[in-house]
Amino acid sequence: MEKSVTMPAAGMAGTPERIPGAAFRAAAALHLQRNTHLSREAIARDLRDRLARRGIRYHLRTLKRQISGAVATVPPEVDRALHEAIAEAGGEDAIVAVERALAEAGLAAASAATAPTYIACERMLPLAQLWLYLHPERSKRALAFRLREELERSGIRLNVDSLQSILAGKQRLVRREIQDALFALLHVDGVTSSADAEARIDAMSREILGAQEGRVFESARRIHELAKAWKVEHKEPSSRRLALLLKERLAERGIVIGLPHVQKLVDGRARRVRHAMSRAIESILRGDAAPAVIEAPAAKDASSTGVELDLAWVKAAPIAELARKHVAENPGMTMRKLAIRISREVEAFGYATSPNTIQPILGGHKKKTRGFIYRAMLHLDGAAPTRVPEEHVFGAPRGERTTEPPPSSDPPLDTDPRSRSRLAPKASSPDGAARKPRPEGLGSSPAAQSPFGAYRAAIQRYQALDRETELELAWRYRREGDHAAANTLVESHLQFVVKVAAQYRGYGMQLSDLVEEGNLGLLEAVRRFEPSRNLRFKTYAIYWIRAYIVDHLLREWSIVGGGTGPLVSRTFFRLRRERAKLEMQLGEGDASIDALLATRFQTTEDTIRSMSQRVAYRDTSLDVQARTEGGPTLLEMLRDPSSDPEHLTASAERDAIVRGVVDHVWKALDPRERLIVEERLLSDDDDEVSLADLGRRLGVSRERMRQLEARTKSKLRSAFEAVVREGNEAAEGLLAATPPEPEHEALCA
Asked: What family does this belong to (predicted)?
């Protein structure tokens, strides 16, 4: 049965469209006024029964909330059911009266107040497919950017990723303004109305479906294998040259693609490719290569193995050593002459290179080169072997030679290592040594022996799941509470958590701590994931994983709390980059940088300065060594104010003077004054006795004790002033002139 692209009807039963609920609530209120025996619940029950007869199940509580105004929008079916109830209760006159009242209130049926706010995503997708068919050189991503520009003109700001998700059909409801923006884009292509768009979709349904099939993604492994076979057949070591050739050939066919993307496909770094792109590249490679090689690109005969060794990356140090020996053994030979001879040998092998490229290799300035240069160096001496030694080849062991240098030393954590092609590139050692095959165990490296290394090795056995398996496990956990399904879902994404956490290693945190926080976010994502949205679990989980990691960074960056929230997070992670941009434009130390940053982040300059200081400096332990290991710590190097000789000398002199003055004054004080000095003036703050307590002990009032304390302080002050003015002898004479009263001794006894 032939497929066709159709526009779903706007009034179909059960459509997820929504319209503003203002007119619906006003009509319900008028219905209640005309029928006083009814209530909101009675109207809600009537509406529920009417919808049930149409095959639409609706909850009574939801209808009551829509009638009361707790829900802003309502489905069109509910609005039509209410109008039917009004017509049955009061006839056509009631409908006319309600519509007249709505029109007077500005809620007429033809006004924007009753236009759908949200529409079904299925209604909009054919419009997007029509636009993509009319613009075959554009992608869904490009359409999402165009839609964002159209929506921003209407004052609506939406994320490009959200729009692309809508265009992929991953959402059930979309805003009506997105459909209006699509119509505006189609109007440029001559589509004047929705009827015109529907007519075009019906007329070109077969072509649109064919275009959509060409946009479907598939695995890029076949392109990688064909590119390997093409390079072996044409003895072309450079992926760059093949990528340039493919880019030119694709442009001739009307397919525009960037050179970096083509090179990723050739190198095997791209995981997916569009179906149409794959077929075009495959036809180009098949037309330029021998049929036998294309049919069996991974076949390993003697000749192809030799070519693969020629294209493999090998150590350059042995070549430099052979070159030095050759120059020393042949008088008159120079490195330049030797480079010219090797270039001729390379041409004889069927390859092409320049003496200017070979000479730095002979001089020891390169770490690696191609195998055909090594073989040409060995071929200069007729008795020398012409095969490159296996221990000098980068990459896999014998039988799994590489033909391309790896893009990075870390393989993707979310891919199956067993699915790698036999000709796929292997990571090369940074020091130029040949890498041996990794054992099946945890390995013998120090990193593998650490707890975190053992953890990374242990999670390698958990493989990624496909979409159907993820959704099945999520439904089992959601409906049945199957914790085994949830555990399987978590285990399959543990490697993905490590990959995300590695992006935040530049903030000085332990990777193991970041992975722990990311795993907590993964558990939260499993608990909250809704499989009904038909999303890949990884797409949803990455937000929770990053949220937990970011929260950990903000909390652990400093022991002094700096707050949390979207503003703090955005400022913390972008401030350094934005400040560097402004400093490049305005110069370092410009006074207006903080003001510009405050405007950009919508905050104050004080907040920017505080956050800048927080980002620039980390907490430092006082127990770490200041300079070298085993040396003094920062705490030991801090200045101690109490060890200052001048301060100690001054304190000792001051204490001696105070002790001498107090000793002389003590003899002249009466018992009550001595008690005040001991309990009040010379006591600690915690041990100080109140004036009321002293008054009770001496049998006097609190006011009298205050007067005695003032007199005692006056005597002490006079004594100290005398010491400063005349010395200790004058103080003794002053105090001897005031003998104690005898009755005071009896009171204090």
From this structure: Belongs to the sigma-70 factor family.
